[in-house]
Design brief:
Layout (H helix, E strand, L loop, with lengths): L3 H14 L2 H44 L2
Length: 65
């Protein structure tokens, strides 16, 4: 008959050997890295688009009589 300690030991060993959650954590970290890269790129792109619109606004303002 298994004692409570044997059952606990078996459960802990099964949890430690289980690697299914590892892949999910890796995918989560990869997703976070991709999200951070996209946010950085869009931030840079947004600044460039803002500069383009400012230049167009300046040209249009200066061309008015």
């Amino acid at each position: 008959m298994k004692t409570m300690i044997d059952t606990l030991k078996t459960s802990v060993l099964a949890f430690v050997r289980d690697e299914e959650g590892t892949a999910m954590i890796e995918y989560g970290l990869l997703g976070a890295l991709v999200s951070a890269a996209c946010a950085t790129a869009l931030g840079q792109l947004g600044a460039e688009i803002d500069a383009i619109f400012a230049a167009v606004t300046l040209i249009l303002t200066n061309s008015l009589p």
